[in-house]
Amino acid sequence: MFKQTLIVAASLLALAACSPSNETAQAEQPAAEVVQAVPQTPANWEVSDAGISFLSSKINKQLGSITEQSRFTASQAVLDKDGQFKMEIDLSSVNTGIEIRDQRLKDWVFETAKFAKANVTGTVDVESVSKLALGETINLKQPLVLDIHGKQINLEADLSAQRVSADKIMVSTLSPVLLDVKAMDMTGGVAKLVEVMGLSSIVEQVPVSFNAEFTRKE
């Protein structure tokens, strides 16, 4: 009987030695993933200094074409919880990379002394935007109204919106929005540029691209 008891005790000790301790077993379990809480109720969103760029194509007298990219460096926008979108662009912040050309655009084309700002407005499906999960993307065909140089122009922008964090959504154009120089009543200023620069012409369709990070505000 004593011998049998020793055998059973030895077996239990052996099993105990082979079994992982509670601490070891817990360490071997995969760590729980940290899930970031993403608010999905309509909210106010703001952005400052969005990336707004445009392409201009000029044709010289040898019929060679050159396309250049320029941008606006000062803007602000809001999207409120009711879906009203408003953006204001400071036209005097135009940056072509050449100072004298910037000044000519401001004086002759945009006429910033009279028309300092451009405004873009629209009504956005804010429910769909607010309900984006982390990393999720939706595409929107967004009607907009551009108020520039004393003219109001109806536009439609193909946009992509992606939730990049709990409180940030990245919005960008999937393809540039085409603006027409005639519709904006800027042909006179463009004609001056053509003459001064000794060009054959400047293409009157201007592709504009946009990207911005919207931050959620309570």
UniProtKB/TrEMBL annotation:
PROSITE patterns: PROKAR_LIPOPROTEIN
Keywords: Signal
Pfam family, one: YceI
Statement: the UniProt record of this protein carries the keyword Signal: yes
InterPro entries named among the record's database cross-references: Lipid/polyisoprenoid-bd_YceI, TTHA0802/YceI-like_sf, UCP029811
Superkingdom per UniProt: Bacteria
Signal peptide residue numbers: 1-27
Cytoplasm as UniProt keyword: no
Ranges where the Lipid/polyisoprenoid-binding YceI-like domain occurs: 44-215
Protein name: Lipid/polyisoprenoid-binding YceI-like domain-containing protein
Native source species: Neisseria dumasiana
